[in-house]
Amino acid sequence: MSRDPYIQLSTRVMTEAMLIQQEADRLRPFLALKAVKTLTPTDKRDMERIYKRMDRREKSLSAYLCQ
């Protein structure tokens, strides 16, 4: 791992952005079901978990960038 703080920052930002994008990709099927109003209680629970993970990742990234 590089000791250059700018490379470390760039790597961290890119990694977090990629993980947030993956969570967004996981949401797509649920959003399609929601559009046609066929979400089951399990779908809703899974969707809420994904939103919470995305929120945590975004907050973590924001906190890291504001240091």
Strand content: under 5%
Mean pLDDT: 85
Order of helices and strands: HH
Number of domains in the coordinates? 1
Give the overall shape, derived from the CA principal axes. elongated
- Please work out how many helical segments DSSP would assign: 2
State the secondary-structure class: mainly alpha
- What's the story with the biggest beta sheet? none
* Overall helicity: over 70%
Q: In whole angstroms, how far apart are the ends? A: 20 Å
Task: Report a brief summary of the structure.
This protein has 67 residues and is mostly helical. The protein is built from 2 helices and no strands.
Walk me through the structure.
The chain is 84% helix and 0% strand. It is mostly helical. The chain has one domain. Helix 1 runs antiparallel to helix 2. It is elongated and about 50 Å long.
Write the layout of secondary structure elements.
Layout: H1 5-35, H2 41-65
Key terms:
mainly alpha, elongated
